[in-house]
Every structure is written in structure tokens, then in C-alpha cells.
């Protein structure tokens, strides 16, 4: 894997473990020489991750729609910034550049990006590995909901294999490499 797209919150959450574990992922990406592709902001876990990848000697590409340049705090130090017109173009460009996807804790925007990527995998638009970085069991309720959807017949059982669920960045990255 040469590039991984990470979906992450524009906030850092209220537990310092979110920052600590996000930094560990940044170190892991840089150590494996995997470029980070993300939304391009300096704020929240997005900024923490980008800073750590850069501080660890890695490369970072941000992708941001023009209208968010004023609302979001654009990261001034990343390796490359790609400006697009719309959120749809942002997601399409991130998907085009990425060899895999990781979802860190985040809010509605992160959820939307995650579910669109899972949906695309479900209908065969991509076969790239997708991982939930389950820091402090953040995604455990979501995993339980997905398992409930499988039990009740709304999600095919084999779709549980569309994503990796891990709380350690190095095992997460290793599992993703096995799926490439």
C-alpha cells in the first residue's frame, strides 16, 4: 500500500487517548512509508494525524473543497493540497488516490465517508481494504449495530468481511496489507 485515506474528526474528542492513539497511527504510516490522504484540515484528529505523519518523516496529501477553505482551518504544512469544487469531488479524489481506508473516531462527516466507502465496497465499486481504528472502543457500538443488521437479515453475513476492526495501529496496518 502506497497511500491510505483516513477519515477522522475535526475535533479531538474528550479523552486524551484519542490523540495518543492517532499519533501512534501517524507514526505507523510513516514507518511503513505509506502516504496519508485526508481532508486537509489542521483541526481535530485530522490535524493531529497529519502533524504526526509529517513529524515522523512521512508524506501527507490533503483534499479540500474551495468553500471549506474559509470554514475549516487548512493545514499549511502538508506535502500537497488538492483543491476541489465539491464534497463529492473530495470523496471521489480521496478514493481515487487511496489503496485503502481507515476510519478514526469522528462525527457525522466521518460516518458519512465511512458508510459511503463501505457501500461502494458492498456493490463492488472497489475492493480496497477498509478498517475501523477502534480507539477506546469508539466503534464497538457500530460493530454491534452491523452484527445486528446481519442477524436480522438486512446485511449479508459475508459483508462483515468488508472491514477490519482493530484498536492497535500496527496490527490494523498489517491486516490491511494482507487484504491488498
UniProtKB/TrEMBL annotation:
Signal peptide: none annotated. Its EC number is 3.2.2.n1. GO terms for biological process: cytokinin biosynthetic process. The keyword Oxidoreductase does not apply. InterPro entries: LOG (IPR005269), LOG_fam (IPR031100). Keywords: Cytokinin biosynthesis, Hydrolase. One of its GO terms (molecular function) is hydrolase activity, hydrolyzing N-glycosyl compounds. It is an enzyme of class 3 (hydrolase). Pfam families: Lysine_decarbox. It comes from the Bacteria. Belongs to the LOG family. This is Cytokinin riboside 5'-monophosphate phosphoribohydrolase. It comes from Halobacillus faecis. The lineage of its organism: Bacteria, Bacillati, Bacillota, Bacilli, Bacillales.
